[in-house]
What does this fold into?
Amino acid sequence: MASDQYRLFRVPGDKGIRGLCGRDLRLVCSTVLVQFLIGPSKEEYHLSKPLVASLSNSLSDTLSDLSSEGGEGVNVKPVIDWSHHIDTDIFNLFVQYAYTGGYDLVREQNVLKTHQLYPADFWIYESSPFVETPTPASVCRQHAQIWVFARFHNIHKIHDLGEVAQQKLRTSLKNLIRSAPYQTRSPQSDHYFDLAIDQFREVVDVIGYIYYQGRRFWDKGTRAHDGMISTIASFARTYLCDCDLKTYNGTRNLSMWESLVEKEPRIAVDMVTHNTKKISWT
It folds into this structure.
């Protein structure tokens, strides 16, 4: 573990660096840095080492191990190489979270099209093989990728990056149907099946992506208590079980959804379990 001299202490309820005491603010603003190498071009970022160490036990342990490699009394800036893991899109959001306790997406950014050009080892960008290619600028997918990144690195302190991403995804799914014009769905309806094809594909894509990526860290012990499963299961139970279809889009979208559930049966199981627990979507 990292030395206690680099431990930060926040006031519960405060976000980012706003809740730090004077001592900890001095640490964050000090010249004690960690270097990150990000994306295929290995772009360099330099962040406060105490701040990075405070984000999760796994990052703290990584920094402690890297610092010890230099030997006692040797001042070596630790380097974390994520060049074969994530790109600058996700890392910039990670930096926002580290300093502010939240993040904001860059709108109209065609990130998914760019990600399709990455080598296969950039696994965090892999789509589910059971869904069609999503809308290139899918906001839902971007939030889900942040959640996978946080979940994989166990980034949690007072404010959980995974929880932030989960809540933003929840809001995006709600806004998707609220912003859809009436000609793409039945008036005064909450039927997601009546969304335009590209919009519904975005919904199916993010659900497929979460279940596909979840195989990396879900197990029998942790899966049942994962908040994202509850979020997706409750959403599907609330909005994707009413098949009162009145449009051509509805029939086509239902077929797309049935295909995913057939190939990912865990979704159906979680929907039933969620309904039994009676956890409200809203």
In short: The longest strand covers residues 33-38. The chain is about 50% helix and 5% strand.
